[in-house]
Write a structure and sequence with these properties.
Elements lengths: L5 H19 L6 H11 L3 H6 L3 E6 L4 H12 L5 E3 L7 H9 L6 E5 L5 H8 L3 E4 L10 H15 L5 E5 L3 H7 L4 E6 L18 E3 L23 E3 L11 E4 L2 E3 L5 E3 L7 H16 L4 H9 L10 E4 L2 E7 L3 H10 L6 E4 L26 E4 L3 H10 L5 E2 L3 H6 L4 E7 L1 H11 L4
Parallel strand pairs: 1-3, 1-4, 2-3, 4-5, 5-6, 6-9, 13-17, 14-15, 14-17, 15-16
Antiparallel strand pairs: 7-8, 9-10, 10-11, 12-13
The structure holds zinc ion (ZN).
């Protein structure tokens, strides 16, 4: 790799020192403060650090941290990979990630949806993965349309290859100005933000909503894909034909070969993340037979899916930050186990918890449900209206202590999740 200019070297080194000091004083992993220090000294540093590397950027409302980790694991098969493993997904975090792996020929960076245009411009990344867009704590449906429109402008006229989820109409629209796109059928369980055509505002038709299981004969439909087909009733905008397809527990590659995923990470959402990761790995020249074993080695990502233990109660932690995320978390739950739900409303969660009303909780009926967190009363009212019996707990610790010894699942939003991890162990 070419040597950085002296000013950039200095900015990079001082940023790493700031990060080390921050870690030493117990203020987190230091990547954000380190990157900020570096960017003050050399505002052009991200461009310089990205130069000469093969970079993939990963953006979505949900799953970007996990997908970043999966792609990173796969590309390590090819060489050293720089990555922002702890979700510091704005430019300061990207500077820190690239600065701390100066000689890595590859980089995989998780990017906040709103910062994606800026980071595309700064890094000149050759590969961009776009997975899903849905309402988030602070973003409402209108704003995600604006985000997709910004993605379109950022991708137009650039020599960038995009890997995008063809099952998400808004992502498809956001990606479709790119010079080249690999379309992946990665599914879209949450459809509440995509009933309208992003191109013309007309209604989107969803074809064949019933699921066609693989091996079923006589329908003429492509197994596993019909539930995801969509088209605008009023203009030509419709789902592009995917070259990769997530089909239940397997991925079908562009040559029609079926690869059973067999991941350690649980749930449909992670199989979708893996489908995107395999398509991305192939763009980097890494075939499925070499990438997939690497994906199978990933067991937890920044605390997600890890288990914490106290007094014989083993709690598996699931992070869900918005309605689409809750839907995917329900898919992971073990129906034979009790579940603890914990919801906070700190700054990173969004103060407004009205999104709780967007989630359908009826799937929780029939198992013991415990409710904790700052906004437990809001959640309790919501569960009551949905006819889901529950018990209120004063804290997560009390909810855990109320369990019989054994396993329990936990779904928590951002700060609730971080609080549980810091109080009950930080195993990664
Ligand atoms: Zn339309």
């Amino acid at each position: 790799m070419t040597q950085l200019p002296l000013r950039a070297q200095l900015a990079s080194a001082l940023g790493r020192t700031a990060a080390t000091l921050s870690r030493a004083t117990g203020r987190g992993d230091g990547s954000v403060i380190g990157g900020r220090v570096s960017l003050v000294l050399e505002p052009d540093l991200l461009r310089q650090l990205a130069h000469d590397r093969k970079l993939a950027l990963v953006s979505a409302t949900n799953g970007k941290t996990t997908t970043t980790r999966l792609i990173t694991s796969a590309l390590q098969e090819l060489g050293e990979v720089a990555t922002n493993a702890f979700g510091a997904n704005m430019p300061a975090g990207h500077v820190s990630a690239l600065s701390s792996a100066k000689d890595a020929p590859y980089g995989v960076l998780e990017v906040d949806e709103k910062y994606l245009p800026e980071v595309i411009d700064a890094t000149g990344a050759g590969v961009i993965c776009l997975m899903n867009l849905s309402r988030d704590q602070m973003d409402r449906a209108g704003e995600i349309w604006l985000l997709a429109q910004k993605w379109r402008r950022a991708l137009a006229g650039k020599n960038t290859h995009v890997i995008a989820n063809a099952d998400d109409p808004l992502v498809t629209w956001g990606a479709s100005t790119a010079a080249s796109v690999t379309w992946v059928s990665a599914g879209q369980p949450w459809k509440e933000d995509s009933w309208c055509c992003p191109q013309c505002g007309g209604p989107l038709d969803r074809k064949g909503m019933e699921y066609v299981p693989p091996g079923s004969a006589g329908t003429g439909a492509n197994p596993g894909t019909t539930e995801n087909d969509w088209a605008c009733r009023e203009c030509t905008f419709r789902r592009p034909t995917p070259s990769w397809v997530l089909d239940n527990d397997a991925v079908i590659d562009p040559r029609g070969r079926r690869w059973v995923l067999d991941l350690k990470l649980p749930g449909r959402a992670n199989r979708a993340n893996a489908a995107i990761a395999l398509a991305t790995a192939e763009v980097f020249g890494l075939p499925v037979d070499r990438a997939l074993p690497r994906l199978r080695e990933v067991t937890s990502v920044a605390g997600r899916y890890t288990t914490v233990e106290r007094d014989g109660r083993h709690a598996r932690l699931l992070l869900a930050k918005n309605p689409a995320g809750w839907l995917e978390a329900f898919d992971v739950l073990d129906s034979s186990l009790p579940v603890i739900l914990s919801v906070n409303a700190q700054g990173p969660d969004g103060r407004d918890t009205s999104w709780l009303w967007d989630v359908d909780y009826r799937v929780l009926r029939g198992r013991p449900v415990f409710v904790a967190g700052e906004r437990r009363l809001d959640l309790a009212l919501r569960l009551d209206v949905a006819g889901v019996p529950f018990q209120l707990a004063g804290s997560f610790g009390q909810a855990l202590a109320a369990q019989p010894p054994g396993k329990v699942d936990v779904i928590a939003n951002y700060t609730a999740f971080q609080n549980i991890r810091s109080e009950f162990g930080r195993a990664v």
